[in-house]
Write a structure and sequence with these properties.
The complex is a heterodimer of chains A (172) and B (497). Chain A has 172 residues and is mainly alpha-helical. Chain A is 67% helix and 0% strand. Chain B has one domain. Classes of the chains: A mainly alpha (172), B mainly alpha (497).
């Protein structure tokens, strides 16, 4: 990660901590015996204050490094991505984005459609999303059977021997 | 102690279903450990909901079986595919793969399995002897001592994980921030609930943990691997144990040294096997008379990596059982396993659930032997499993994680939380923010607040009362010494460059 990105991270935490600190003032302060050295507000204020201070240190530290001579900058650029995972907005990013979207849709319909139907739909969609395009046709029959069969198997496993409740939805 | 052990073993062997469940746990752990991209944490997340209907003892026995199997399974793909199945087996690739390419895959696997077994066993023995003694000491802790321990653990994990201390501390504070959502301890004041009934009870550990560790990994893995070309070696045979007695005799000192490294690193919160295998490898290389041969396919490096990563298991269990502080992601999920059954690990665990604790100890010993047998006997099968495509496995993991989150309180809110924290975990990876401090901050946020406020109440608001508590002072002094040493080391490094 480069210093500008690091400063952005610091800025995010600074805004978060300041919002958190502001929110702490609406916490009711309860002192029933007149002897509470610390109320329920104190810890959020401590956490918010510390986070704000650390964010400022992080931003300032990276701003100073940004001003260093060009030689250091080149070295930084060389190791720019050493610390974090790289995600560009290519096919990989699209896959991740759609995976999250499918999960959200799955949870939305989890109780509405019921476990079996929503899970079958999710498995079908997610496997077809992740499978390499050239293999889709060859695997289609297997994926259909797998997506239809596994939710039933899981439902029976969790509700019968493990006595767990799972939403029945439309099939109930 | 022996009597309790006898009862623990009897509780396991009295019911064949228990043996079957532990066997299932160990095997599933090995499979998940062996499959690149899937970790022990993902296996534990998947199996956690299955333990709902079980007794505490057997559910934890099964989960620790997964933990042991998962930590050991990473060596299979490290040696045969040149991809570490888990971060704990990174250093296994260094000498394991070259050995396999020389046509000695059977020997590499044999040495790896045997050292994983020895490392696990030695750390379990250490855990068995240290844990009860430590629990007997920590039971005497008051609020100031507990407060100092939480500060020590939080600061230590923030500085040891990741490359930046500031980012580690920010991550820990973010975890503590999330922990403040809901009703405050002591006076139950509402905090950051935004009028939501669901938020009033606070966020549950399981969705936060599984979201940050498992879902974020699944989302990242769904994008595919980094294009590294790897070919699986299937043509191998393990004769006997895979190595000669003379070969392993020459490694005894190495085994003991690396088990100590693993155990020590395991006890420290947050670092675990992923660091232990690399540290042990470099320690062994530095101590070797032929360091130039490392990386060319010698068993010394393999022994170091596999002994140390498995030795972290017992080490990480010590703070979990005695202080309720998880040593790594896997033990954080084991903590979730305890909590699902309404039990909080800590010094009182040995008093209130003594049988369950010794059942866990017994199951861990049994799991170690089982792990060795399953890995030696089922190696050809694991090789076949390595061929299962990730596009089939990943959606199934998501489904099981969502079942687990939903079953926590039988509401969709926790499943939403799972996805939310999955995305948070992914963003944290992208911006190189360490996740373990956030988890520990979330877990220790509440005890930090409760103990600080109680301590201040007992001392009429005088914070300096902490100076009258030598154990609390010792922890704070240790922390100050650690930070001092780290700063000195950094200065020395800067001077040398």
């Amino acid at each position: 990660m480069n210093h500008k990105q690091e400063m952005g991270t610091g800025l995010f935490f600074l805004i978060l901590s300041l919002s958190y600190l502001a929110g702490s003032f609406s916490i009711s302060s309860f002192d029933p015996f007149g002897n509470s050295p610390m109320t329920s507000r104190a810890i959020p204020q401590l956490i918010g204050g510390l986070m704000a201070a650390l964010s400022v240190i992080h931003i300032a530290g990276n701003a100073l490094r940004l001003k260093r001579p060009q030689k250091d900058q080149a070295a930084v650029r060389e190791t720019a991505t050493a610390g974090g995972r790289r995600f560009g907005f290519d096919r990989s990013s699209r896959l991740m984005l759609f995976s999250v979207l499918f999960m959200c849709v799955y949870i939305f319909f989890f109780t509405r459609l019921g476990f079996i139907l929503s899970t079958a739909a999710f498995l079908l969609a997610e496997i077809f999303l992740l499978i390499p395009p050239e293999k889709r046709r060859r695997w289609a029959a297997f994926v259909l059977c797998f997506s239809a069969g596994l939710p039933v198997l899981l439902y029976l496993l969790f509700t019968r021997p493990l006595s767990m409740f799972l939403p029945v939805g439309l099939l109930g | 102690m022996l009597e309790l052990f006898g009862t623990g073993f009897a509780a396991i062997f009295a019911n064949p279903a228990n043996i079957l469940l532990i066997f299932l746990g160990v095997t599933a752990g090995i499979v998940f450990g062996a499959l690149p991209g899937l970790t022990t944490v993902a296996a534990l997340s998947m199996f956690l909901p299955i333990t709902y209907g079980m007794d505490l003892g057997i559910s934890l026995a099964m989960l620790t079986g997964i933990y042991i199997g998962g930590t050991s399974g990473g060596l299979v793909s490290a040696i045969l595919l040149n991809i570490p199945g888990t971060p704990s087996s990174i250093a296994t690739c260094f000498d394991g793969r070259p050995l396999a390419l020389k046509g000695q895959a059977g020997k590499a696997l044999g040495v790896g399995i045997f050292c994983s077994f020895i490392g696990t066993l030695l750390s379990i023995v250490a855990m068995i002897f240290v844990s009860p003694a430590l629990a007997a000491l920590t039971i005497k802790f008051g609020p100031w001592e507990n407060f100092a321990v939480t500060v020590f653990a939080l600061a230590l994990i923030s500085s040891l994980v990741g490359k930046s201390l500031v980012k580690g501390l920010l991550s820990a504070l973010l975890g503590m921030m999330i922990a403040t959502i809901g009703l405050a301890p002591i006076d139950a004041a509402k905090r950051y609930t935004f009028g939501s009934i669901e938020l009033t009870s606070g966020l549950t550990l399981l969705p936060v943990l599984v979201g940050l560790y498992a879902i974020s990994e699944v989302i990242a893995s769904s994008a595919g691997n980094d294009g590294k070309d790897t070919s699986i070696i299937t043509d191998f045979k393990i004769r006997g144990l895979g190595f000669t007695l003379a070969e392993i005799k020459g490694q005894i000192v190495n085994i003991i040294r690396c088990a100590c490294v693993g155990l020590g690193i395991g006890v420290l919160p947050g670092i675990g096997g992923s660091t232990a295998n690399l540290v042990a490898y470099s320690v062994t290389k530095n101590a070797s008379r032929y360091p130039e041969k490392f990386g060319t396919g010698i068993i010394d490096g393999l022994v170091a990596s596999e002994t140390a990563n498995n030795a972290t298991i017992g080490g990480a269990m010590i703070p979990l059982l005695t202080l309720g502080i998880p040593g790594d992601g896997a033990t954080a999920l084991l903590l979730g396993g305890f909590m699902l059954h309404g039990v909080t690990p800590g010094p009182l665990l040995f008093e209130t659930n003594g049988l369950a604790v010794y059942m866990i100890f017994s199951a861990m010993i049994f799991s170690s032997f089982l792990m060795m047998l399953v890995m030696y006997g089922g190696m050809k099968g694991f090789v076949q499993i390595l061929k299962i495509p990730s596009y089939i496995l990943l959606p199934v993991i998501v489904v099981l994680c969502i079942i687990g989150a939903y079953a926590t309180n039988f509401r969709s809110f926790d499943a939403w939380g799972l996805v939310f924290f999955g995305v948070v975990g992914l963003l944290m990876q992208k911006y190189a923010m360490p996740i373990p401090p956030l988890i520990l901050g979330f877990i220790l946020g509440e005890p930090f607040e409760t103990n600080l406020r109680r301590g201040l109440q007992y001392s009429n608001g005088d914070f300096l009362d902490i100076l009258n508590h030598p154990i609390a002072l010792m922890f704070l002094a240790l922390l100050a010494a650690f930070f001092g040493f780290t700063a000195w080391q950094k200065k020395q490094r800067e001077k040398n460059t």
